[in-house]
What we know:
By secondary structure, the chain is of the alpha/beta class. Helices cover 35% and strands 13% of the residues. The radius of gyration is 26 Å and the shape is globular.
Amino acid sequence: xxxxxxxxxxxxxxxxxxxxxxxxxxxxxxxxxxxxxxxxxxxxxxxxxxxxxxxxxxxxxxxxxxxxxxxxxxxxxxxxxxxxxxxxxxxxxxxxxxxxxxxxxxxxxxxxxxxxxxxxxxxxxxxxxxxxxxxxxxxxxxxxxxxxxxxxxxxxxxxxxxxxxxxxxxxxxxxxxxxxxxxxxx
Length: 186
């Protein structure tokens, strides 16, 4: 019989204890990941949020003159576009300007005529502050724009759209608060 205090036996015992510790630690990690991941809510998903969701059509920048694809939403919420910055809000916005703004993380709110509906500027300013070059550079602006034929107020974020009848609809502020700053990178 071997002596349990012999150096070789002690090394085997230490190795066995180290292996047991590793196995226990790995088991604890697996159990904790299983426990916590089963309790995740959809709000953790960067795609889940208020408004109607659309497929991600990418954010590829087109060369001037290159053909635009057929977008899966009108106005588009993602897709290849020619980079066109928004210089000011309250102007008529092209699809390229909308997609450039959305890809950068801005929110875009569209309405039918050249004048924003009552209360809309207050909502935009309340969420992000007045439009400025600094906000525009940081992807933190809520850009107001008009497009003929728009029905109601159409709020846009990357891959998402919300249509409301009036600026005082609480869903509009919730949409803008949730999506502001989440551009094409998530």
